[in-house]
Amino acid sequence: VRFRIERHASSGTGIRVLPEIPHLTPCLLEGPNGIGKTLAVHLLEIATGAQPFLAEPQLWSSLKSQLGPTTITIDHLAQGQTIELELLPEQWPDQVGEPLGDRLGLARVGGEEVPASTIGDLLSVVRIAGTETPAETVKRSMASTRQRLRAAAASLQPRVDAVREGLGELRHMLRDLDPEQLVRLDDEQERARKDSAHAAKRADETSRRLARLNEALEARAALSARSEDQRELEARLAQVESDLETARKERDELAKESDRARESLVQSGVIAQQLATAENTLQARLRRLSNRAEEASAALAAIGDPEDLDGELRRVTSELAAAEIERADLDSGERAEQVVGQLLASLDLARRSGLSEDQVLLYFDGQPITAERVADGLRARASELAERPTPGALESLLARIDEVERQRRALLEASERVQARDRQKELVEEQEAEVARLRGEIGADVQERLQKPLASLAAADNRVLSLARESVDLRAQLADRNLASESDAKAAWDAALDDLQIDPDEIETHVIEARSEDELAQRDLAIARRQLADLDHEVRVAAMAASRAAEELASRPDLLAKLGLSENGSVGPDTAERLASSVHTVDRRLDDVANTLAALAEAADRVAVGDHQRGRLFAEAFVAAAGEQLRADLDTPAIRTVMFDDQPLLELDLDERVLRWMDAGGEHQERPLAAFSTGEQAFAFTQARIRELEPPAAPDRLLVLDEFGAYVSADRMRHLAEFLYEGDVQAVASHVLVILPLQTNYAAELSETRGDLRKRYEDRVEQLDARGYITVPLREAVS
Amino acid sequence: VPNPDEPIADRNIARALEVIEQVAVQTSDADEKRMLSAAGSLVRAIATDVAPDAVAMEEVRRALSN
Hints:
The structure holds 2 protein chains of 2 kinds. Chain A is α+β, with helices and mostly antiparallel strands. Chain A contains 22 helices and 16 strands. Chain A has helices at residues 37-47, 57-66, 134-166, 168-173, 179-302, 309-352, 371-386, 391-442, 444-483, 486-500, 507-554, 557-562, 573-608, 619-634, 637-643, 679-691, 709-713, 717-724, 727-732, 746-749, 755-771, 778-782, and strands at residues 2-7, 20-21, 27-31, 70-75, 83-87, 105-109, 112-114, 123-129, 360-364, 367-370, 649-653, 658-662, 668-672, 700-706, 735-741, 774-777. In chain A, strands 2-1-4-5-6-7 form a 6-stranded antiparallel β-sheet, with helices on one face. In chain A, strands 8-14-15-3-16 form a 5-stranded mixed β-sheet, sandwiched between helices. The longest helix of chain A has 124 residues, at 179-302. Chain B is flat. In chain B, helix 1 packs antiparallel against helix 2.
């Protein structure tokens, strides 16, 4: 295969690239430093889809900016095609890991335009640096991994953003539900509950400690003050009990006196009772007298209040008697008239028979009444009777008699009333005399003798009661003091000290501290409870937001169907909260994609530079994974043969940067990666790596062994050449290029050479003069 | 729904997935393992041609079911 690299006139000048690699294999390319040997190989790698700058992003930037339009022409391919590739560095990505794809440039195969990314289907380029030791392999591999991870993150980011945008509608519906807040609220509520419980417990403890300290103080105070205090109490009790005894005696005396007085009182009570009865009687009599007087007054008023009732009564009686006589007269007039007639007739007869006129017929008041006079009187009467009143006069008389009789009855009634009143008055007077008498019997001294002892007894009772009460109180206090007796107080003091574990001399300090701690604890408790209440409020507010979001979600069955929520019935606040939490989870996972890739890239970078910092995200696992990956890469039959006694590589420890295997004898072997840096081991390692190359997928493969100068000076070129001519190498690479630094000053040594060597040197000098480097068949170089 | 067997064309993403899986095997930290597992499946989902909206809904649905 021949490679020609043509930079156009306008290309930058900061970098140089070999213009051609001839159609020779294996080919040895020799040239001084700085002519672009390695860069030419890298361009071929890039052209065939590889990215040799993954471990050196700054070189990539430099290449992109300084290379300029460049055309690579490749011919003598196995299938006879010619590839023309016009590189367009200005289209290349800035990030070294970002795929080039068709941005590589414009490609034609056999004159037909093809996508630039398909060049790798026809040709691959493998560059192996002769100086690459296992340690450098690790570094290159890790740097490459780092770049790929960063490039992956960069290419994923737009798609991550698009997915995030896909959550926009859902996020809008759940805008008032902050899942972080919900989680925070849950966490904080739980924490606040714990804090509150803790604060309550702490406050309880500080309170108890303070109380215990105060008890200790009291015990100590009781110990110091007990004796004096008790003496005072006992003295006071003795005094009180003495006073009580005296008071009791006085009270007993007064009680006796009062008994006596009471007896007198009892006696006085009989008289008093009699007096009361008498007074009651008197009162009753007075009431009756009042009644009688009223009745008498009414009766007298009814008859005109005569001044002389008796005289009036007598007058009316007489008048009535006269009227009665008159009426009797009137009633007996007729009979009297008969009698008088009969008498007169008898007298007339008798006088005619001889009775003298002077004959005394009767005596009247001692005076002799003669027949004549009787006859005169009878005649007078007869005459009178003859003239007696008429029936009208009688009726008038009867009416008068009725009137007088009424008057008389009225007078009699009045008289009876007056007599009744007077009798009642007498009874009242009599009772008043009795009352006066009884009152006189009771007397004031008896009252006085009763009152005084009773009053004194009451006072004495009060005093005894007061003293007895004081005595009881004092005895109770003394009982308390006895409970807190010296031994008890000492025990309490010792127990408190043992419990509190404090220096007794510092108890005041502890009390002050405990009081301060208790105040703080109580304040903390109040704060904790207030915080809990605040959080409860926030939770309620969040619950309201969840309800609103649930209502909004319920109106979007299409969205719910996408989320698989339509078959679960109604959408409640819980669902809204779960959904918000899920959106938040997805957000976090999207963040985690970038974070994970960044953390892995960071870990790869640290492994690449040998800085293994533990504790970083993924750091330890990444070191283990990378170690295992590299171990597997190195644990090939060829590498085992040349490096590990033909035994499996057990471990590549990137922490220790050592390789571990077990040799054929069963002995554990361990060797630092750096130990493979020079000499036969490094050469063997390179050979092994070449042998382990997989056969190429593309028809052609260019294998470049770069930076192999160390082998020349060690006279290993022959061995290398022999190796490269082996069938194993031919199987994995159709073309081999060995690049060496310029080995000698051929022009200077031309005069020292003869024959074929001189010819070869002349040819090399010509090549150097013509293009600055030499290309010859490898075999020629080692012959 | 992304197909887990679908090859990832982007070599960088394919390598990233490979690293994620290798590190997930090595870590004994449950949080790291969970984060790597979630990131791996999400990277695979995002790297496929499934529409971002569909990926978003599917991820929410998965998060809901968990």
